[in-house]
User: Fold Adenine deaminase from Streptomyces fildesensis.
Amino acid sequence: MPLPKAELHLHIEGTLEPELAFALAARGGISLPYADADELRRAYSFTDLQSFLDLYYALMAVLRTEDDFADLADAYLERAAEQGVRHAEIFFDPQAHTARGVDIGTVIEGLSRALDAGRERHGISTQLIMCFLRDESAQSALDTFEAAKPYLSRISAVGLDSAEVGNPPSKFREVYERAAAEGLRRVAHAGEEGPPAYIWEALDVLGVERVDHGLRSLEDPELVARLVRDRIPLTLCPLSNVRLRCIDRIEDHPLRAMLDAGLLATVNSDDPAYFGGYAGDNYDAVRAALGLDDETLRGLARNSFEAAFLDGDEALRAR
Ligand code: HPA
Ligand code: ZN
Assistant:
């Protein structure tokens, strides 16, 4: 029985397995520039975040209809359930779809259909986090937020992702203020490739309650003190960090040092179809590479429920 856990850093578009990409392409009459799923999988060799993002956005061409988005989410939930995920807070990137002419309603309705069925079908509760692409303009984020207004009851939080360096959190102050005014929770990717200063901005300018990645936090002792004091969770993604060359080897991952520093660290999968593993695989990888014992693993799972946007009763049910 895998350890029951919550997954808090998961891009639904990053769960698109090569086989499903080809199946959706066939259904939609779309041709992919790869002979087959194996050839596509061989292209998954990244030198940094941008080299991954280029392929990640290109492959989204196969996602066009509500059914496509529903099938994507259902396939993720099936894999996640096998790995002990009981609750998932799931990112999606509306601008990556609306830029291709796909209506935001198609995205949200399709995902919601599968997620709503997910509790019964897979035993997983879910929430949706709408991310803004930080390499697009602040105005584009504002327009996206307005377009999402009819669907806000289906969205629990806003997030910030895509190419980090050169696109600091402060660029998105206004859209985060609007999200807060609508009662949405706030998270942001920060400190994946970008410096600790971006994590400070995410906290102080955007008001985030949780930092996605925060990998570089330990570079700044004052920042660590702040994160510990306010019990701000970090959603770490160890296999992603290696595949995107943020760290050289999984043995170099700062997870253990972060736990020793008193940080509320969680382990997640980011883009599991691209990075070689789902949530449980990430737990297994850090256990083996860092020599974590069972109690530490259980502590990570406990952290995941504490860091989730669940109230007390929901958290008990999810565990
Ligand atoms: N970082 C930033 N943006 C992303 C990622 C990531 O790891 N995955 C999908 N969008
Ligand atoms: Zn991410």
Q: What stands out?
A: The longest strand covers residues 125-133. Residues 9, 11, 161, 189, 212, 270 surround zinc ion (ligand 2) (CB under 6 Å). Residues 5-307 form a domain with the TIM Barrel fold (CATH 3.20.20.140). Residues 104-122 form the longest helix (19 residues).
